[in-house]
Amino acid sequence: MQIELQQIHKHFGKAHVLKGIDLKVDAGSIHGLVGENGAGKSTLMKILTGYLSRSGGRILLDGEEVECETPAAAAALGIGMLYQEPQDFPPLTVLDNFIVGRDTHPDNHRGRQQARLQNLADQVHFNLDGEAQLEQLTVGERQQLEFLRLLGRDARLLILDEPTTGISDRQKERLFAALHQIRDQGRTILLVSHKLEEVVALCDRVTILRHGEVSGEESAPFHIPRLLALMFDQSPATDAKPQRRAPGDALLWLRNLSASGERTGLHDCNCTIHQGEVVGLAGLSGSGQGLFLRLAAALVQPTAGEVEFHGRSLNRRDHRTMRRLGGCFLPANRLEEGLIAGFTLVDHFTLALRCSRREARAAAERAIDKFRIRGTPDSTADSLSGGNQQRLLLSLIPTGANMVLLENPTRGLDVESAGWVWRYLRKHYAGQGAIVFSSAELDEILAVADRVLVFFDGRVVRDLPMDRVDYQDVAAAMTGN
Amino acid sequence: MPNLRQHLTDTLLILAIVLAFTALLLAIVGASPIEAFGHLFKGSFGSWSKFSRVLNVWIPLTLCSLGLLYAFRSGLWNIGVEGQMVLGAIGAAGVLRWGVDSGNPLLMLTLALLAGMLLAALWALLAGWLKTRGGVHEIFAGLGLNFVSMGIILWLIFGPWKRPGIASMSGTEPFPAALWFPTLEGWRVSPFALALTVLAIIITARVLNHSRFGLNLKAVGHNPRAVSLYGLSPQFYLLIGIIISGALAGLAGGLQVSGIYHRLIPAISSGYGYLGLLVVMLANFRLLPIPFIALFFAALNVGSIQLPMMMQLDSSLSGVIQGACVLSALLVFGLRKLKRGRNP
Fold first, then answer.
1. CA distance A213 to B333
2. Interface membership of A72 toward B (CB under 8 Å)
3. Looking at the domain covering B60-303, what would its CATH class be?
4. What is the ipTM of this complex?
5. Would A53 be classed as within a structural domain?
């Protein structure tokens, strides 16, 4: 299916976020859409999929003008999208989620549908248990399920928003192979991504957005510095390898810790975190890293073992105490767990800093300036783009925090912002305390951390200082070898 | 102020739908809508005496609605407000019975209101605990406790607190006039109760819209998962929200006993708890419209009393109008939200 967007405009109140976008994607091709956070990629895709109405412009599919007024209409036209935040039904099982909404071929026979799901999963080498409750899956696994749902529906145009977020390198390779395979079947793929290496590896053509306008269009073979120049106002500085310090006093102890949750649970984990350390948690998504962070933050009740922070035992769900002693946790599900939809930036700062409205407003203005959040103190959290929500969360970390626990902290940020975030976090929090973070990108962990814990199947299988880390070894350990 | 204009258009739209719907209904049963609306108006605002009766309904209705607003802010549907009002009435009646011969009516009346608020708050806390500790949805807990409260009040009226000789649906033995809230000459409404309600409105406005506590409560209501990351305990705020809700309903119940009926009757809550839910929904969960909507509903309740006499219409017409108001309001708000969602 060939798609053509002509002069698409979008206003949000006074903000003019899309300023006449022209985009043409040929049938049977993989087309990349890149741009900085807030460049308008997500908005454009939401218009194409009927979640937002456009303020102006035309959409043509195979040369015929269509409306795409509702998500259902877009789906009926054969447009399917894999969102960055999973759009699914957490109280249902994996199989229920797979079956739901298949109006074109209503078939509720569970056995047949299970076979279909299994068949599709095998094609792209995903491993999903049909009977598992969706709530126990990680974001990455939920994205995999959504991808299978799109494959199962007869979507002729597949829009993928950061599809490799939260999946392993091996799964990524398989996904890419599958994408090539379905492209050769004649389906059209639109890939929205920050990761230029992936765009370069996958796409036939790339459109670059900057501040709501098309700043350029390139064909393969691509020249990465040129893409960067079109994406950013200036080329991002290359990241300096962080200097390491000797670890200081122990701050956080995890002793014989076990808990159930996620898919694998966490089993018999022993670990001590020291002041001055930046600890990276590596592993395939859903191997226990998220549970580790939530246990360390005293947000989850362990089934055995104990957590001790600054000499105080935190065995109950006791995040308040943790926070009073300088702990802080940032979840990956920004709007579900971290921010409050409908609350403004000022509201968030009032809550986080426990201060007056006036002080909170000043803090919000400082944060907007410092973290370059595209919004105003009175913008609501849900009106910010994904990357800007992440910046808001980061700006809410208390200044005095000495144990910063981060789940996929640079998820949804572009390369330049991610680099800036790490320099900021290191400068402000690694000296006075420790940073523990998980990431789906092994490269990021190796670039940032002083120490790496490798998770496999709910267990910590390696605990290595950076100078003893070997890429091949860590990658092998992550997959259980 | 586009916001104010929008609220005004919404309100006018809602009223237009309600008027059209009610008029149609009346035309179908062969009654004159103009005449019916005229009677409703005259029956409620026709004289000072009638208006003071409207105010007597306005007071408990407003208090219940304010209480509900606290619970809604924390994300709870405190449907148990009806039972909490009953418990408030029982608490107040208990103190007044005990203090009949004390010789200090002012102290007794104060104690009665406090006891009513306390008992109702505990009753609400029970629903809150069932929710936070037992995982029982607050709607079921509240509904169940409403039935239990009805059982308790009937048991008291026909059992331990029955009138000497004859237990009856007309309630317990009235309290001596010294234990009635004083009313002004020619008015049926107690200025004290009126002042207390106005004070409750002002305090609620302050607390919900301009205090840290109000913001925390709202945060819990919006996203209970996220607030624990800000060092707040969602359970604590849920319980506080429902306790305040119960205390205000208890105050309403206490005032019914000490200011209106001067005894305990089975129908002491008069359905104001449920009506309060409608008021809050019609106000779109905002504080400012609540006193006005409560006044409108109270006027409908009082005004409709004449309908059977004057037009052989059932007085349930007021309920029809109130229900139509809420339904059309939900419709208008829903459409507005739909439009905003598509085009923010």
1. 35
2. no
3. mainly alpha
4. 0.81
5. yes
Same domain, yes or no: A92 and A181: yes
- Residue-range definition of the domain harbouring residue A292: 236-326+400-481
Residue of A nearest to B339 (CA): A53
Q: Would you call B219 and A340 a contact, using CB atoms and an 8 Å cutoff?
A: yes
Domain count, chain A: 3
Q: Cβ B215–A347 below 8 Å, yes or no? A: yes
Residue A430 lies in a domain: yes
Q: Which residues of B touch A (CB under 8 A)?
A: 212, 215-216, 218-219, 222-223, 225-233, 342-344
Report DSSP state, residue B29. Answer: T
Q: Give yes or no: residues A316 and A418 share one domain.
A: yes
Residues A384 and A444 in one domain: no
Among A182, A215, A231, residue at a domain's last position: A231
Q: Residue A47: what residue type?
A: I
Which token pair is B144? 């169940």
**Bond prior to A221 in cis (omega within 30° of 0):** yes
Answer whether B212 sits within 8 Å of A354, measured CB to CB: yes
Please answer yes or no on whether B223 and A339 come within 8 Å at the CB atom: yes
SS3 of residue A312 by DSSP: strand
Nearest CA in chain A to B218: A343
Helix-then-strand count for chain A, H and E: 16, 20
- pTM (2 decimals)? 0.74
How far is B274 from B143, CA to CA, in rounded Å? 11
Q: Residue-wise pLDDT tens for chain B (344 aa)?
A: 457 788 888 888 888 999 899 889 888 888 888 888 888 898 899 888 889 999 999 999 999 999 999 999 999 999 999 999 999 999 999 999 998 887 788 899 999 999 999 999 999 999 999 999 998 999 999 999 999 999 999 999 998 998 887 777 888 888 888 888 877 776 778 888 999 999 999 999 999 988 989 999 999 999 988 888 888 888 999 999 999 999 999 999 999 999 889 999 999 999 999 999 999 999 989 999 999 999 999 999 999 888 888 888 888 888 888 899 889 988 988 888 887 765 54
Between chains, do B225 and A329 touch, taking CB under 8 Å as contact? no
